[in-house]
Amino acid sequence: QVQLVEYGGGLVQAGDSLRLSCATSGRTFSRYIMGWFRQAPGKERKFVAAIAWSSGGTKHAEAVKGRFTISRDISKSTVYLHMTSLQPEDTAVYYCAADTDAKSLTTPSWGHRLASYDYWGQGTQVTVSS
Fold first, then answer.
1. Is the dihedral of CA 8, 61, 123, 85 positive or negative?
2. For residues 18 and 107, what is the distance between their CA atoms, to the nearest angstrom?
């Protein structure tokens, strides 16, 4: 069984920074893409950032470009989301996910599609007060 566990969320003020981490455990699996998504109350889950596990190539949603950065530590099987200049509209539950299909990387929109991901964490709450 594969488990993804996110941590690092919390309550911060506008302008603050946070770093989310997502550690994987359980059986060994081939991951090709790791992604971060977020879901605000009453809204759909949306793409935030993704990283190609082997090459380190990244993608970020327009709403977070220049403020958020995804990275990974292969030796620790951990993916990070460094968030700076947080705003109240960043308030959401943040989820990490793993895509185990190598073919996903061949599409121009790799990383964006929720349905491409096979494993999900339970989420960590990020609340930004104004």
1. positive
2. 31
d(CA 17, CA 123): 18
Largest Cα–Cα distance of the chain, in whole Å?
42
Read off the pLDDT band of 2 (50, 70, 90): confident
Lowest mean pLDDT among 24-28, 35-39, 79-83: 24-28
Across the strands, what pairs with 50? 35, 59
Averaged pLDDT, 104-126: 94
Q: Which residues pair with 39 in a beta bridge?
A: 93
In the structure encoding, which two tokens stand for residue 86, read together?
């947080």
Could you tell me which of 7, 127, 112, 125 has the C-alpha nearest to residue 51? 112
